[in-house]
Amino acid sequence: MMLGFGMGFGVLGMAIMLIFWTGIILLSVWIIRTLFQITDNPANSNNLSPTTPKEILDQRYSRGEITREQYELMKQDIS
Fold first, then answer.
1. At 19, which helix (H) or strand (E)?
2. Which end of the chain has less neighbouring CB within 10 Å, N or C?
């Protein structure tokens, strides 16, 4: 007579094996996601989009979208 989880312990043995392997798979997925996680936090990433009105204004001026006079007036408005 062979004693194995599936053979000798019946339904209880199969349930234990199912829980065990499910836990192993979930643990593996969690470890892989943790190791290769890309952060969504803008404070920790090199986010190139401006976050403040001053930064937006600076970028618009540097791209030539507004004149120096417009830049100075807008800068006064937002400060």
1. helix 10-35
2. N
Identify whether the C-beta of residue 66 lies closer than 8 Å to the C-beta of residue 56: no
- In this predicted model, what pLDDT tens digit does every residue of 42-77 receive, in sequence order? 555 555 666 899 999 999 999 999 999 999 999 999
**CA dihedral of 29, 33, 36, 38, whole degrees rounded to 10:** 160
**What integer pLDDT is reported at residue 1 of this predicted model?**
43
Contacts of 61 (CB under 8 A, 6+ apart): 68, 71
Intra-chain end-to-end CA distance of the chain, in Å: 85
Q: How far apart are CA 58 and CA 60, in angstroms?
A: 6
pLDDT recorded at residue 38: 67
